[in-house]
Give the backbone structure.
Amino acid sequence: MWYAAALILLACAVRAEKITELPGSEHMEINFKHYSGYFQVSDSHYLHYWFVESQNNATTDPLIFWFNGGPGCSSLDGLLNEMGPYVISDDGRTLRHNPYSWSQMSSIVYIESPAGVGYSYSTNGDIKTDDRKTAEENYAAIKAFFAAFPDFRNHAVYIMGESYGGIYVPTLTVLVIDGHSEFPINLKGIALGNGYVSEALNVDTSVIFAYSHGLVDEKTWNTLQDKCCHGCIDTCELTNITSSLNPYDLYRDCNSNAELNKARIRAMKFGLAASPSSLFRNNEPLLKQKSVESVFGYFRQITSLAGDVPCLNDSALIHYMNDAKVRRALHIPENLLRWDVCNEQITMNYDKVYNDMAPFIKKIIGAGVRVLLYYGDTDMACNFIMGQQFSASLNLPVLLMNLTKKRGKEPWRFNSQIAGFKTVYKGLTFLTVRGAGHMAPQWRAPQMQYVHRKSKHLQRISSTPFDLKAHNSIVAQNGKISTRHNENIHGSSLSPRYFLWHNIMGKSARPGLLKCDLQRHVIEKRMKHLRISWRQQIPFTSSLASGVHSMDVDPVDNRYLLCGAARGEISIVDLERPLPNDERNRVEHTVTPCQSACLHASMITCCQWYPQDTSTFVSADKVGKVNLWDANKAQVVDEYFLNQEITEMHWCNAFVRNPLIAVANLTSNIVLIDPRTGNSSHNLRWPNERVSSVRWSLENGNILTSGSVSGKIVVWDVRSSKSQLMTVSPSKRFSCHYKDSGVECISGLRFSKDGLYLVSLSLNHTFTVWRAHTMEIINHVWLPQEYSTKIAPSIRFDICSDDGVLRTCTPVGDEVLILTLDRQDHENFRVLLVGHFQRVNACIYHQKYNQVISSGNDRMIHIWSPDMDEQLPDQQLERVSNLQEDHWSDEEGMPGPSYV
């Protein structure tokens, strides 16, 4: 098609400029690619970009184009202060790792727009622009990006922005939609953070916002209601009321200079300077005279006020970006002037064309592109009431809420707490972020990473009613739970705190109880629950007639479940392939056995996908054989013989040049296998110890943590000749036995998703939570006595931390125990999942769908859903028995996934 020729032409104007050494990051491991360069968007305009590839899987993860506001402010503020993989330190010289980076799951292109902002420039000095021209040049920049990075051509694309990005993003998105036939882009959605979407609403709602926060007395409020504001700031005295407050976050400290803050607030009501750069410099007015004479006359009266607004101190960022070494690393031309967060010349000369984004948003939704509007609820500059009223004014159908089955606003939760409120419309989600100001990704980083993860994956956590009656499961009657066919087993009635379940797939499966230990006032508030999904129980046929002992979900597609069985069989289960209703055909439809002459001759103890690709996986057995597989051919391509029982194996999933496989085999050596070269001769020696478990760090692919039979933990740096960095040990309060050794044993190690915490499980039935960077013990959690006797010597537990709460799922006999590892010394919430009728060997957490997957000697794989952070009022348990709730997903009855 002709757009291929357009790409060739664009390629002449741009090239990928890789960042090879980034000053200030020497202490960090940069395990991803990043680039900095220029897009030529007109004859004289060049826009600077900084592109960060995904830290997860850059070949498949979504692609984001990010724009900060102003107009006239740099998008690098978003990169280095908000959601980038590294953020600026206070010293202005070094960068630090951002554990809540959005690039952990997306590739992000930060574009400094328009020309004249940051390091973007004009060759003829003309930086005068407007909304239309900015949108056109931003569209040209996107086209230029795909010319320079053609491998991202088919990725899911999202366009996002903040503040005056509420103008940039919709106007750009409409151009992308209109140009789709000529230049196709796989556009999935847009997101606006505290977006400036309506000038009139922003002015009017600022009065309501001030009154609702106790800034206006009743007499003034009554006067304002009579006279204000109808979109005209001249008739309001709001700036006098809020003069000493932080306009970006009402509850953060700011400069006490009232005159300076008045100017900031008044400017922001018109969206003319939605950024914390200097208001004035060298007695030059920030804004040129406009039609609203009194506003800008006011500014002219205070032109002597100079300097940065202390509400948001960007001095460290400015210092870093102007460092000569940084400029060279980013390929910045030497003749460019000093970098600043905002360019007041852009703001002074910027012509606003659009005052209301409603027509643009309607067209975007009509094109099938999802819209997310999120607002920090303490921002005075672009307040959430504007966004709420704007969303309602679009007259979109309000969808049913999943829990209440009513239409309207409902809370969303993070870390078991209300994190804000959302209203879901057809095609649009309006979201508030509790306690966040103008820069929600910076001030509520964990919550916003959670929002981003849900949105970028296009996840649709099922909200379809789960009719238990139709499948001979439980029936709610008069507030009690009973069974249809097995009332004699546990009695005719049970407390609403207990659910009785049937294993619908297995004839010999016994019913069990989902027990909820209601601790810490959960009985008055919410109750966590998981249940077996009847269409996702996978029985193994006689061809795989042994229990499943090891599992792993592929980290690329999050779709294929790798299973290792007791008799050496390897199988791959497609978790997303629709299952037929006829259970006799389920195995043939879903399970793919791997046939090979080199199958294991004994029990599979470990199996794992290659962390960066689904074409390869590795398996290990009880007699010490390790097989490397070609997944496409289902054949072994390499094998290693260690001649010792392998208790645990882990393939490094950090992005390093040569990811190694670490193997623990109850000897004093940790074997490191390099699958690229076939070398397995390198060992880490731990004298007088027997290694029982290993785990690579999620942040640094050269750091390995190992546990021993004696209960010690060693942290290794595999690059160093003296590899041992430190040795630690959990509390010695209890003793246990491993093969009659009479001492403690570290039977499992797992890192939390953010890599900040390490969880170890000892055979004295103790979970120990460590701070990963310092190996400081944070908490001990002891398994309840009734479960401790069921713990096997080799335990395949997993971390299921999805919302900031650290949880584990652990096999205990023929059950699965969900245990919350509170980071304080409190009682810990427990849920017991019962559905297997023989011992459970392994359980893992499926991150994409927030599900627990368990397998056992009954040759059954159970998938427990919905997501584990669901919490429901105790009095609603009767009604819940017929529903599968989801506090996050939005639309019901819509085909395919949804944006948020």
User: Anything to note?
Assistant: Residues 117 and 573 are 51 Å apart (CA to CA). The radius of gyration is 29 Å. The longest strand covers residues 417-425.
